[in-house]
Amino acid sequence: MDLKPIYQVLPLSIRNRIQSLPRTILSGLEEVRIRQDRPLEVIASGKNWFVSSNQQLKLDPRDCIHPTREECHKLLNLISNHSLYALEEELRLGYITVEGGHRIGLAGKVITEGGRVKHVRDVTGFNIRIARQIKGVGSALFPIINQKDEIKNLLIVSPPGCGKTTLLRDLARLVSTGEGCTARKVGIVDERSEIAGCVTGVPQHDVGARTDILDACPKAEGMMMLIRSMSPEIIVVDEVGRKEDADAIHEAIYAGVHLFTTAHGSSIEEVRKRPILKDLIEEGVFERIVLLSRRSGPGTVEAVYDGTCQLLRTAVCSS
Amino acid sequence: MLKLVGCILLLFATTGIGFILAGKLAARPKQIRRLISALSILETEIHYSSRNLSTACSHIGDRDIEMISELFRQMALRLTTMDGAATYECLKLAVQDWWPTSAMKTSEKEVFLQFCKTLGNSDRSDQLTHLALAKQNLQVEEQKAREEQFQYEKMVRTLGVLAGALLIILLY
């Protein structure tokens, strides 16, 4: 796991602290949380720790390192390359994707204009989320989606942090490179730069050889753009749920394009109560619905349903 | 004989000084002009390409703008190597290092530093406003520099020769 892009954006004082953490922590690092004048926090392998001044990891937030105002400023300068103007959109959305596909969430004073968020000023909270591509997580599920070289429309359902996006990314890679099927043209609409983690338009994760990405593009519009211009056989989008998304999905499905997508939810019943998703599911748009959880680590497959919400499989296969 | 050689050397020296000073007077408005055009490039880099500051600066540094490219090269270098220090600090160091090598004076430097204070730390439209303002102020400086050149360039040049002649008369 290459943490170099992360080190590059950290000011020297914080970088040294993080770098001197034990190897076991670094290899399982999930998040680094920096909050001005509050203890430095790291989350690794699902556990959270505070970093004390002598590089010890503690659960007790007392006498830990408190990043200063100056360090937060430096961090923002390094993240933005001294150019806030180039990050207008990112500041509006509240996160920045850096090299390696890692994402940095920002919190602070929000400036609004006409009721809409304009940007985040006085950034005092940073959440550095380490992106991990786990190649092969989709292989176990792949035969369910791909039957006799025919790709099924897929909806992945899970609460946040259960590996939806990781699974989606790997499935895109498998279909695009043709591992276990004929290689298809894949189009990704990556509204939050999570799936491919693009930096200046170049994907930082391996999303396959035949994949085109519309980075930071609104989902509904992006799907239409792809259908019009890139002739994809499979469209991959994250987190559908709005009215426009449903329209675009209809447009795609009935144009012979297959769809891989995700939604938040902890059970199929829950998803079936959501207004837009309910209609899509009842219509039978999704031929396979996969439910994930964190029961035995992120990416635990809880159940697989078919288009009519009939249970196909409950076997827990931790991938 | 030796005296004569000395006189000639003296005359050459003072004439040389006169020409160098006149040359500086002539170079100043030209350099200001080039700085303004460099800012125009920076404007497109910021407005259209939305590149980050260090990349934009090194792009300008790669171009062949006499004298000015070096300034932007140094700015880019400082921005990338100072561990996230305040943008203005990085730029100020670069400007202070470079300025004495140019023919420009402190008034332009003040204008440029003032502009550096705003660079990078606001949204695009605000950056453009500051860029326009800096260009405008530099144009005023350029105009002043031109007037100065017009007034003094010839005078300094002849003064060099004449000062030499005067010294020779006094010392001979």
Automatic annotation (TrEMBL), chain A:
Residues 150-296 form the AAA+ ATPase domain. SUPFAM superfamilies: P-loop containing nucleoside triphosphate hydrolases. Pfam families: Spore_III_AA. Keywords: ATP-binding, Nucleotide-binding. The keyword GTP-binding does not apply. The keyword Nucleotide-binding applies. Gene3D superfamilies: P-loop containing nucleotide triphosphate hydrolases. SMART domains: AAA. GO terms for molecular function: ATP binding. InterPro entries: AAA+_ATPase, P-loop_NTPase, Spore_III_AA, Spore_III_AA_AAA+_ATPase. This is Stage III sporulation protein AA. It comes from Shimazuella alba.
UniProtKB/TrEMBL annotation, chain B:
The lineage of its organism: Bacteria, Bacillati, Bacillota, Bacilli, Bacillales. This is Stage III sporulation protein AB. The gene is spoIIIAB. It holds the Pfam family Spore_III_AB. It comes from the Bacteria.
